[in-house]
Amino acid sequence: MAPTRFPSAAAGLLVLALTGAAMAQVADRSQAEKLAADLAVQLAAKRGDLALGRQLVLLHLVALDDPAGAAKYVGEGLEPELAKYVPAAAKPVAEAPELACEEMSRWYLRLAGEAYPWARWGMYKRARAYAARYLELHPALDKPREDALRDLKRIDDTLLKLCADDATVPDCNRLALNQWCDLLRLVDVAKDAAGANAGHTWIPRGASLLGLDPSHGPERVTTPVSVLGGYELEVRFLWRNGDGHIGVFLPAGLGATTLKIGAKRSGLDKVNNEGLDTNRTAFPFQLVPNRTYSLGVQTVVKDDQAMITAVLDARPVVRWQGPQFALTPGWNMKKDQPGLAVCAGTVNFLSFRVRPLSGHAFVARPLADPSVLAPKPAPGPSAVPPRKPPAAPPA
């Protein structure tokens, strides 16, 4: 695998130039979704329109990071590169042979240089998935493997910069594998809170964080820690009052989801774009006022697969496995950064900590006190079961 020339941000918006003025007006994912819906209606009325079909391919592929959706619009007349790579991208990474992994990783790196700035993340993440798969299939200690390892590090460095508030993040911001990190100590409410009443919702109380939402928010707070790999999370919280729920935002490789606890129906939201009303992770549960709960979550990622298990007060409540792309965040949270939410109630988050198990994790902004990441004495038994590699999803 020869060294890859990484595209610069200045390569900019070639995709926009190629796909028309309407595409240039897309400022975020929600606008991209609206434009895709509008173009699909136009294409239904003008079947076979090559320009509309091409716009939909690129919109789904790059802006929506949905190669399966893009593949639906691949047809005659599309340039050979898209006709070749888009159907391949729609297949699971775990099925890609060695040579295809090399080609697909490079192709996604090129797309990253041409994507909307806010969409580059997804392109780099998919390039990384193929590069990691290539290394798994190419164990020989030779120059192609050295080149692939170099590319993988550069992709990780690029992802780090995309996550970071500043252009660079020093090595002291990296979290050590298998070491617990106290996330609440890193939260800056002024920077990390989101929601209609963010400024009035989150109140630091010593080592804990009080969340108030009487108005059916939800109100959210993100931690400034980016997790690119497998990890465990532990949350202890006191539910003070209300009939609502808490939420824990869970990165999962190329996807992300929210684990909701309370409001009579709990589980992962969303899975395959299905909320708790219909997806199989849902279970009945109502939070009791003035009671303390302990929640443990483990996320294992491999290629484009993920496995999420959750234990609530020593009771297993969620076990899900499948493609990372099946997990979509129900709320607008920062990519790859665990977070918390409260809806229709008052909660005191007593502790919130993460332990990276694989890959990389780092604080995505400068640390005023780097000692907060210093290794700590081994804690007691984890709230989640021992980790296992994700099995193949059921057929």
Q: How far is it from the N-terminal to the C-terminal residue, by CA?
A: 33 Å
What is the count of DSSP helices, taking H or I runs of 4+ residues? 11
General shape? globular
Q: Strand-residue fraction?
A: 25-35%
Structural class, please? alpha+beta
The SSE string, one letter per element, is HHHHHHHHHEHEHEEEEEEEEEEEEEEE
CATH topology of the largest domain: Jelly Rolls
Helical proportion? 25-40%
Largest sheet: 8 strands, antiparallel
Question: What does the model show?
Answer:
By secondary structure, the chain is of the alpha+beta class. The chain has 2 domains: 9-163, no CATH class; 173-364, Jelly Rolls. It is 30% helix and 27% strand. The protein has helices spanning 14-19, 21-24, 29-45, 50-63, 67-71, 80-89, 98-114, 120-137, 143-163, 189-192, 198-201; strands at residues 181-182, 193-194, 202-205, 208-213, 219-222, 225-228, 231-241, 245-252, 255-262, 264-269, 283-285, 291-302, 305-312, 315-323, 339-343, 345-356, 360-363. Strands 1, 3, 4, 7, 12, 13, 14 and 16 form an 8-stranded antiparallel sheet that branches. It has a 7-stranded antiparallel sheet with strand order 2-5-15-8-9-10-11. Strands 6-17 form a two-stranded antiparallel ribbon. A hairpin with a 2-residue loop joins strand 13 and strand 14. Helix 7 runs antiparallel to helix 8 (120-137) and helix 8 packs antiparallel against helix 9. The model is unreliable at 5-21 and 389-395 (pLDDT under 50).
